[in-house]
Each structure stands twice: as C-alpha cells, then as structure tokens.
Amino acid sequence: MNTAAKAGKVDYVNRFRPSQTEVDRRYSNVRKAMAEHGLDALVVSGNEYSGFEGAIRYLCGFHILHRYAYVVIPADGDPVAVFPKEATWVGDHSATFIDQREFPVFCGEWITEFLKGKRAKKVGVYGLEFIMNVRDYRKLAAGGFDLVDFDIPFDYARAQKSEEELISVRHSMAINKQGVLDVISAYKPGKTEAELMGVAENTFVRLGCARNTMDMVQMGPNGSLLPQMVFPNQRPLQDSDGMMYGLEVSGEGGHWVEYSRPMMPGGMDAITRDMMDAQQEFHALVRENMKAGRTAEEVHKLCMTPFVKRGYRSGHVCGHSIGMTMIEMPRIGEGFDFVLPENMVCSMHPHVMNEERTHSLYFQETYRVTATGGEPLSGTAIEVYEGGETELKPL
Question: Which of 180, 267, 269, 279 has its CA 20 to 30 A from that of 335?
C-alpha cells in the first residue's frame, strides 16, 4: 500500500477532471450568454436519467449517481452546487470543483431564498423542458422571479468543445467502438437479442462507463429492419434477421458519443439495399458539408437530399449537438440557424423509413466540425456487417 493510501488520502477523482483553465473557459462562455440575455442568475438542473446528468458534471464535476442536483450561478458572485440532503452520501462530492456546496432538505426552497438574498429578478433555468424536479420548480415559480427558459442558450454556450474536452470525446468513442465490435464478433444464430446486448454492456462497464449507456435495438425479418426501436428481449436470433444494436455511451470523462452499425447475416433485401445506398451518400455529404460557418439548418438540408429524392420519411431529426448531456441543442434540422463553430461535436443518425413503414435503416456516427467538413470520430466506414467479423471496416 502506498503512503497516500495508508494516510487515507487516496485520490478517487477520475483522470478526466478538468483543468482550472478549462473550468474558467466554461464559466466565461456561460456568463457571456447570461449577460447577453440580461440574467441576474442562472439555475442549472441535472438528474439521474441517463444522458440528463451532464450539465451538472460540466459545471461542477459531480457525477450524479442517484436523484438530482443543481448549480446556481449569480451574475455577480461565485457559483453554488446544491444537492438534496437525502443524497449527502450518494456520489463522490469531493469531485465537485466549485467551493460552495449546500445540502438542504428541499433544494427549491434553498435556491429561492438564495436568489432573493441576491435580489435576483430575471432568472434563467436550464432544465425546464425535461429535467428539473417539479417540487423545486414550484417553489422557484412562486418566488416572484421572471423565469426564463435557458435550455437553448446554455447549450449554445457549451457547443464548441475545447481540445481538453475532445480527449474525453475520443476516449468515449474508443469504448463505443469496442462495444459495437464485440457485439458483431459475438453474433451467432440462436443467441437471444438480450444476450448479445449483454456483450456490449459487459464491455462498457468494464471500460468505465458505469451507468452511462443508452442501448436499444432495431430488428426485422429477411434482411430488413422495422422502424421501431425497442428493448432487446429473449427472442433467439436467426441468420435471416436484420439487427441494429444502437449503442450510446459516455466514458470516464462524461462526454457522450453515438456509434452503431447494423448486421445482416443473410444479406439485405432490395429496399434495405437502396436505403443503404442513401445512408452512404448522406454520410459522405456530412463529411463534405459539416463545416464551421454553416448553420445547422443548412447542413440538414444539404445532407438529407439522398433520402428526400428517394421519397423516404425521417423518424426524427438527422442529428444534434452532443456533449456531457446526451442530446444538446442545436438539433441538426430545420429552424435552427445556429452557426456551427469549429470543434463542435455532433451525432448524426438519420432514422429513415419507407412510406409504408415496413422498412428502416439507421446508422449512428459522431462527427467533429472542422473548417473543411465533418470528421467522423470512429474512422470507420458506413457499412453493414454479416456478424462474426473481428475488425471494424476502416473509412
């Protein structure tokens, strides 16, 4: 045992803890957005639902294990991390890199009184659409503040990733790729859908993702995929099946990525083959057109043309910004005039289907925005696998 361990001073904080320079950069960007919108304070919410914990980790370093937490940023003064008292010993609070930490019985009451003490009037809230605890919102809403939905401005402020963040992003991608490859390599007819998913989960937990995985499948008959995404079940797999294990993870540093490739052991039917051609064209267009200086809407319109000209429907937008929260704004879609900065990271995953909704094909890839186009962070080709392969196909 080393000296630190004997002294009870082992550092259990993960190796991706941000530098002070990186922390200062994050707060500078967020405070700039606050000033542009005339906020007196900002309340940032996170909870344990997979993918919704990232804003807290981004601003204070704490990884939510259970329940929820907040970071409150006054326009003047230092930020405060607020945790429910019942979760005092849930999670490693020593990972929190801002000094003031509060553990009230009811977070909403404490935050309301704190903001009143700061004479705050206009208060932004990140998390109003999906994340914030309803009990805490009711207290805040009754506090007499002018509450502003700050989900989009906050995400825009953190869209551009630093070189330090990109190290974490690439680490997550290496884990995601390994999980996908392990699933492909382990495929054998007769294994169940869930059994094969278990291979990926074993890889992800072993490599440090903890609970930060979001896994689903698409299945279909005779070399096709049905449109719906579902949980894997105990159905034995057949060589005639189409299979898509959709795997999204964040590694130890907390940055999410999305990467998946379908399997068609018996080959694709004609409709799926046509969708495959369109998917390959789409991702080639992303590599060409996801340039710094273009808007999210422009990229969407340029890249979706292979599906539009074939008459395929889109199950949802073709992509979105991604970071320490799984889905960040902007979406890569119509109505988003956000100008993409260099080193923004985007997940691109067109979920396309035919008009009859009998066929679908889905790929996930994570891209870095560069001055010349989108860099696919996996470095692998948009290809379908037969199952049993031991290597991913390079780009």
Answer: 279
355-to-178, 230, 252, 306, 368 alpha-carbon distances in Å: 35, 20, 41, 15, 32
E strands present in the chain: 41-47, 68-74, 80-82, 100-102, 122-126, 146-149, 213-220, 242-250, 256-259, 313-314, 319-321, 328-332, 345-348, 351-353, 360-362, 365-369, 374-376
Q: Which domains does the chain have, with CATH numbers?
A: 3-157 (3.40.350.10), 163-376 (3.90.230.10)
Q: Find, among 353, 382, 389, 351, the residue nearest to 367 by Cα.
A: 382
Length of the chain measured in residues: 395
Token code pair at residue 264: 């068609």
* Whether 125 contacts 140, CB under 8 Å: yes
pLDDT at residue 276, rounded to an integer:
97
Q: What is the pLDDT of residues 116-151, one digit of tens each?
A: 999 999 999 999 988 999 999 999 999 999 999 999
In 256-295, which ranges are continuous DSSP H helix?
270-289
Per the DSSP assignment, residues forming a β-bridge with 242 are: 220
Residue 362's contacts (CB-CB under 8 Å, 6 or more residues apart) are 218, 225, 229, 244, 246, 260, 262, 349, 350, 351, 352
Instruction: Give 9's contacts (C-beta < 8 A, 6+ positions apart).
Output: none
Q: Which two tokens stand for residue 138?
A: 């009711």
Residue 98 is which amino acid?
I
Percent of the chain with pLDDT over 90: 90
